[in-house]
Amino acid sequence: MKIFSLIFILSTLNLCAQDEDEIIHAKTQGYNPEYRLNYFNKMIFQIDLNSDIDIYNIPKLNYTDNIESAFIPNNIIKTKFSFDYKFLGLFISVSPDFLSGNNVDSPYGKTKILDLSFKFFYTDRLRQEVVFKSIKGFYLDDPEKEDPIEVFNDMEINTIGGKTFYIINRNFSYRAFESLTERQIKSDGSFIPSIAYYQNRLNVNKVNNSETYLSSIKSLDVFVQLGYMHNFVIYKKWFSTLGAHPGVGFNNSIDSFVNPADNSNIQNKTANINFVLESNFAVGYNNKNFFTGIRTNYRNLDFDSRTEIASTKLSFGVFAGYRFDENKTVKKGFEYIEKHLGIK
């Protein structure tokens, strides 16, 4: 009996300490603890199965009669693993052959994808994302025809870039949508201005010995967005999120052609204004430690007709994760980084 009493007392003291830490954190960051619950003392692991589809329009490679024809990777399902703790989030996505639909006999070719990113908060409301993605293997698809026009197994697109954004409303939890390191307790929303910057490098890797051919494209995209997101709390532990992020930006491209007659290289430069629209949706269950749900993201870059590379991205996925108690060694390491970098 004494043992059970001791366990009860220790558990009560631990909960009181957590509540006190949460109140101190809320006061320091200036938000109302009745709206947000922060799991800053948990290490969070998450797995996500999603159909993350990148579609590229490349006018100088589209030699079909349909201007809507696009280059699509032969990818059905990607698996993303993530780790979140305190201010940092690490993500890696892979596309195993047994899930992606890749095989030697596929009329759509074979695609290899590597997707790496890390995301962190400079402060409670200023967030940074850094991404690197490499996709090798595409097929040219004409919406009016059933079979692919041609397979480009060696064509490769590498993207590196990032996004910096600021959450206006202190009581809105972006973490409750994206990484589940928090829980929105009361429904609330926020405007989220941001600036994004991406560099794409296309290597066609397809030689034409009879006429001048496109060998590579290097493009830079910079755009600003003014988005809005809202978390809806349903029956305390169920939630839904809606968001839209329109924006405008600038695109600069350099495409390189090779003349097989003398193996000379010809470059062409273009600069254009572009428009972007992103949207978010999620619905799920978020308990103290376990969480699960579905999440979709859509992004469309509406470029000038002269733009060399335009892209559309659609992602639909199912996710699940668990929050573990923090490890003392890991905690000390992160606290050391926070102290010396001034991260709050």
Based on secondary structure, the structural category is mainly beta
Which regions have little confidence, pLDDT < 50, spanning 5+ residues?
A: 4-18
Overall mean pLDDT score? 82
Largest sheet: 12 strands, antiparallel, barrel
> Which strand order does the major sheet show?
2-5-6-7-8-9-11-12-13-14-15-16
Strand content: over 45%
H and E string: HEEEEEEHEEEHEEEEEEEH
How many individual β-strands?
Answer: 16
C-alpha geometry: elongated
The Rg value, from CA coordinates, equals 24 Å
Kindly, what is the distance between the CA atoms of the first and last residues, rounded to a whole number of angstroms? 43 Å
| Relative helix content | 10-25%
How many separate helices?
Answer: 4
Overview of the molecule:
- This protein is mainly beta and 344 residues long.
- It is 15% helix and 56% strand.
- It is built from four helices and 16 strands.
- Strands 2-5-6-7-8-9-11-12-13-14-15-16 form a twelve-stranded antiparallel barrel. Strands 1-10 form a two-stranded antiparallel ribbon.
- The longest helix has 28 residues, at 2-29.
- The two termini are 43 Å apart.
- Residues 4-18 have low confidence and may be disordered.
